[in-house]
Amino acid sequence: xxxxxxxxxxxxxxxxxxxxxxxxxxxxxxxxxxxxxxxxxxxxxxxxxxxxxxxxxxxxxxxxxxxxxxxxxxxxxxxxxxxxxxxxxxxxxxxxxxxxxxxxxxxxxxxxxxxxxxxxxxxxxxxxxxxxxxxxxxxxxxxxxxxxxxxxxxxxxxxxxxxxxxxxxxxxxxxxxxxxxxxxxxxxxxxxxxxxxxxxxxxxxxxxxxxxxxxxxxxxxxxxxxxxxxxxxxxxxxxxxxxxxxxxxxxxxxxxxxxxxxxxxxxxxxxxxxxxxxxxxxxxxxxxxxxxxxxxxxxxxxxxxxxxxxxxxxxxxxxxxx
Length: 322
Ligand code: BTN
Prior knowledge:
Elements: H1 6-14, H2 22-29, H3 33-42, E1 49-53, E2 57-61, H4 69-78, E3 85-92, H5 95-102, E4 107-114, E5 133-141, H6 151-165, E6 171-173, E7 177-180, E8 183-194, E9 200-208, H7 234-250, H8 254-267, E10 274-278, E11 283-291, E12 297-301, E13 304-308, E14 314-317
Parallel strand pairs: 3-4
Antiparallel strand pairs: 1-2, 4-5, 5-9, 6-7, 7-8, 8-9, 10-11, 10-14, 11-12, 12-13
Bound molecules: biotin.
Biotin (BTN) binds next to α5, β5, β8 and β9.
């Protein structure tokens, strides 16, 4: 959807949640009142509710804060990210997919809604309209960084550090889950394209539940910033998150990776907890002992320590319902 798309202009007119007449909307959009009412009905495809009353017009319930690409770009430029670009999409299947196909180095893509948001291990990422943040960053490399599998952990630690500084007690569940108050509040999905021994591209996808208060049955216990009393603007948060990811990727050398991996224990939600590791074929029970210098999970089991690489395994507490 381009910035002059009538559906986006309609949303911009309604976003504040005040009553606005059909005549005013028709004039702003340059379309008939019948066409306005058709377009209003189409907003239900994104689960947006618009009340209508004769004599008053239309009201979006509740109000929403739309992403402001110009604001985000200006703030990122001011923070020193001269080469970054920002693309805001109203609706897309997946920001990771879009950026992989259309983006360039250091470009960010954010969407108000994803129709097929991707999570780890083939899961779907629930992406309701204008409630959460769905953000992807593209990084092109000439050579793959040595400890690439640890990248998600490095970025997770950096994001926790930044949000904790804002008073949001974000934690990490190995490898790439962002937790708040013991429940999942977000996650990272890093996808790579290119040959292992040459130039390549990383698409770093970040989903963070911001204002979502209800959702369909997601197969994990979830939460959002709003459910913990945080009412931070999505645009402010987008700048904080994007700045953190960009800074971290620019500073990514071995020393920085080691430093971040050492800091993991500060945010480790399962530190010394009884856990179960689920692989494709078997499950292993033990006590989580943090991570090693490669980002592998150290598990104390009845048969000694075992280490698990970031890959197709998942981790759950074994003494709780999640
Ligand atoms: C997880 O399973 O925890 C990772 C979720 C990652 C979701 C984000 S939302 C933005 C980006 N686009 C996607 O399709 N997925 C990631």
